[in-house]
Amino acid sequence: MLNVPSQAFPAPRSQQRVASGGRTKVPLKQGRSLMDWIRLTKSGRDLTGFKGRLIEVTEEELKKHNKKDDCWICIRGFVYNVSSYMEYHPGGEDELMRAAGSDGTDLFNQVHRWVNYESMLKECLVGRMAVKPAVPKDYHEEKRVLNGMLPKSQVTDTPAQEGPSSPSYDWFQTDSLVTIVMYTKQKDISLDSVIVDHQDDSFRAETILKDYSYLIHLGLSHEVQEDFSVRIVENVGKIEIILKKKENTSWKCLGHPLENHNSLIPKKDRGLYYRKCQLISKEDVTHDTKRFCLMLPRSAHLQVPIGQHVYLKLTITGTEIVKPYTPVSDSLLSEFKEPVLPNNKYIYFLIKIYPTGLLTPELDHLQIGDFVSVSNPEGNFKISKLQEVEDLFLLAAGTGFTPMVKILNYALINIPSLRKVKLMFFNKTEDDIIWRSQLEKLALKDKRFDVEFVLSAPTSEWNGRQGYISPALLSEFFKRSLEVSKVFFCICGPVPFTEQGLRFLHDLNFSKDEIHVFTA
Ligand code: FAD
Ligand code: NAP
Predict the structure, then answer these.
(1) Apex CA 145: angle with CA 142 and CA 147, to 5°?
(2) Per-residue tens of pLDDT for the chain, all 520 residues
(3) Looking at ligand 2, which residue's alpha carbon is closest to its atom 22?
């Protein structure tokens, strides 16, 4: 639902198929692209029937609007009249109608919860769902919240057996510092499981505990300096965030709770949070792919876990456009040398510019110093899958190479059992191969690493492999280093490529536990 539409979209190999998790899409009529929709929303036409007035919608009222020409849908508490959007929805009218006259939040979250529907549908906003009268908050409970204990009532939707045991937080101070301590009760937490942002006096710290998100969200009672530090005490699962006071006065309280403060909810239900990052550099990597370096604000702590992606957001003609991108290391050989820039403040991306694409030309036009919004990380790759692996096989096509970069670096340095990593990298032509010379250098440097390039449209001079992913290619390439070895496969690229790869690997009797397919 509510995906970015475009005429006759997506093309057989369009990126949008991947972004939507490979769902089937219907061809859209002429004049029903995203740009056409943006134009309609800017035309001043009344798309809600309320001339911009917002109303409170009861459940009974919502239910009445369940037809194609009168269709209201509730997403995360807000009700939209999507009747005029029907023909622009790339998933098709029927898909949108599944949520007609009802709460479509779950359906939306299942398909593509990251889509910026708020911006895309802002002219369709009818109003909020009427709230059932809430029990007034008890003063003592509020006080307990600020002392860092999690009231039972705020542990929303947390099944006792499945979720992590209730995290909590506390704080203490010295003359110059305030330390916020999150007790996660989970031993394997690392610096990339905590994301901290503070802007003005608003402080936000989210920690990912298995598939749950625990959030501290406060309006701080006093000003603090921009920079801060984060420390993990791994053996007890404790996170310490050390803030520097602007003035050396004693704080009577830490602050007041903001939205969803002290809540523990499934990660998928937590909205994406964005911070503005500055473009530091943009360099050519191939004829159409560039390496972008973005700098996080000093007031943010964010490390993207290996194998995960973030969403980049830009406002294009008044509408927010969001697409996923997978951060890479600054170079393939970077783990073997001192980083040029301290690596915890910079995020690198390899981005292919599609001249007729929606977002990438805008990214390409950014000037050094411009800002791009970067979301919290997402993705279901678990680095623990690589534990004790002996043969690691990476299958990448085009920019599907991006998740392989950090996996490759990680495997060569951190997996003692590793005997061999093989990358099979599919591209159209030699000119399309990202970081070819780095890959070749790495293969020379580290005997455990082999790379094989396969081209689908090579010139006559090419004497390497050519063609498409096939069972013959795979069975020849995927030779184990020992007769019996622990293997793992990662696959990333255009959806049809990953689907075929997966099928072929199953045919070769590899189990699903031995394969990770990267999708949105
Ligand atoms: P789009 O507007 O999506 O267009 C893409 C192509 O489709 C263009 O060639 C365009 O001409 C064509 N097209 C558009 N509309 C039509 C139409 N109606 N008919 C025919 N053709 C059409 N990409 C990277 O470069 N680097 C990454 O690290 C990266 N990581 C990703 C991670 C994930 C999890 C996923 C799912 C995708 C990732 N991508 C990455 C792809 C990225 O998200 C975008 O899909 C890509 O950048 C294209 O965006 P765009 O808006 O510029 O192009
Ligand atoms: P591309 O250049 O169009 O394709 C790369 C290679 O794959 C080419 O040789 C191409 O052959 C081949 N190929 C394409 N479709 C194929 C199919 N059905 N079967 C066999 N081979 C096929 O790729 P790109 O433009 O860089 O796109 C990369 C894709 O990866 C995008 O869809 C992007 O969204 C996705 N991606 C996903 C993630 C993630 O984490 N999920 C990360 C990064 C990128 P021909 O073109 O010659 O036919």
Answers:
(1) 115
(2) 343 333 333 344 443 433 333 444 567 778 888 888 888 988 888 899 888 888 889 999 999 999 999 999 998 888 999 999 999 887 888 888 999 999 988 888 777 667 778 888 989 999 988 876 544 433 333 333 343 334 344 444 334 345 667 899 999 999 999 999 999 988 878 899 999 999 877 999 999 998 899 999 999 999 999 999 999 988 788 999 999 999 999 999 999 999 999 999 999 889 899 999 999 999 999 999 999 999 999 999 999 999 999 999 999 888 889 999 999 999 887 655 555 555 578 999 999 999 999 999 999 999 999 999 999 999 999 999 999 999 999 999 999 999 999 999 999 999 999 999 999 999 999 999 999 999 999 999 999 999 999 999 999 999 999 999 999 999 888 888 788 889 999 999 999 999 999 999 999 889 999 999 998 6
(3) 497
Measure the N-to-C terminal CA separation of the chain; round to a whole number of Å.
Answer: 15
φ/ψ region of 183 (left if φ > 0, alpha if ψ in -120 to 50, else beta) reads beta
Q: Whose CA is nearest to atom 46 of ligand 2?
A: 428
How big is the CA angle at 257 (ends 375 and 150), to the nearest 5 degrees? 95
Any ligand 2 atom below 6 A from CB of 303: no
Q: Which two three-digit tokens encode residue 124?
A: 């369709």
Half-sphere exposure of 66 (CA within 13 A, CB side): 12
Residues 6+ apart with CB under 8 A from 466: 454, 455, 456, 458
Pocket of ligand 1 (CB under 6 A): 6-9, 11, 14-16, 18-19, 309, 323-326, 349-352, 354, 356-360, 399, 402, 520
Helices (H), 371-470: 402-414, 436-445
C-alpha 90 – ligand 2 centre gap (Å):
21
pTM reported for the whole predicted model? 0.79
How far apart, in whole angstroms, are the C-alpha atoms of residue 371 and residue 314? 9
With a 6 A CB cut-off, is 403 part of the ligand 2 pocket? Answer: yes
CA separation for the pair 397, 497 (Å, rounded)? 8
